[in-house]
Amino acid sequence: MADPAVSAAPEPRRVLLKLSGEALMGENEYGIDPGVVREIASQVADAASDGTQVAIVVGGGNIFRGLAASARGMDRSTGDYMGMLATVMNGLAMQDALEQVGHPTRVMSAIAMNEICEPYIRRRAVRHLEKGRVVVMVAGTGNPYFTTDTAATLRAVEVHAQVILKATRVDGVYDADPETHPNAQRFSQIGYTELLSNRLQALDATAVSLAMDNEMPIVVFDMTVPGNIARAVRGERIGTLISGEETR
Fold this sequence. Notes:
Elements: E1 14-19, H1 34-49, E2 53-58, H2 66-71, H3 76-100, E3 105-109, E4 118-119, H4 122-130, E5 134-138, H5 148-158, E6 163-168, E7 173-174, E8 186-187, E9 189-191, H6 192-197, H7 205-213, E10 218-222, H8 228-234, E11 240-243
Parallel strand pairs: 1-2, 1-6, 2-5, 3-4, 3-5, 6-10, 9-11
Antiparallel strand pairs: 7-8, 10-11
Helix pairs in contact: 1-3, 1-8, 5-7
């Protein structure tokens, strides 16, 4: 019989890192910058090697945007499916970079393409995480009209992640666009309802509502600062925390 005086080991930290497709193109106008991908992979691998379980949802805006194509006359569903395929290319690039730095990785797709990656199955994804593998989740939700922000929130809830880490090019959520409003104030923490009511463009409304319904905290941080991805994955306080309460 186990000694009741001996406490159970704490649950490992499990996070979902949301990377935009634009994050992978570096200073290029489109496509994938291998150097940027390697740098992201190195930081993720370092943090994951410390025991943190890491899932990644990657966007495809560096290659194709369904919404932009729709605005030019393409059928929205067709454009969104093409965008989902773009996320698969980004996911494979991330897998390659992670494995080059020695960290085991699995790509799981919401659209079946068995020759190049596994189908997304929730229990299998959780098992990969428990074995210390980084799981890169691609093809969004597998459905048109949903952004990869929403896909990231859905997957985080499904695999019981403790937090969503949204890597961006700004250092948090502001009360106005900091690029056009020099006096914009950054929130250290903001509530879901406040974010929605003020229509702050940190995430789309569907993703925020899903996070709020499931009490899933979101951290928005600047991935361009060296080492910030590793800091966020390890749980250091950076950027803006989106949760149930608001503070400046």
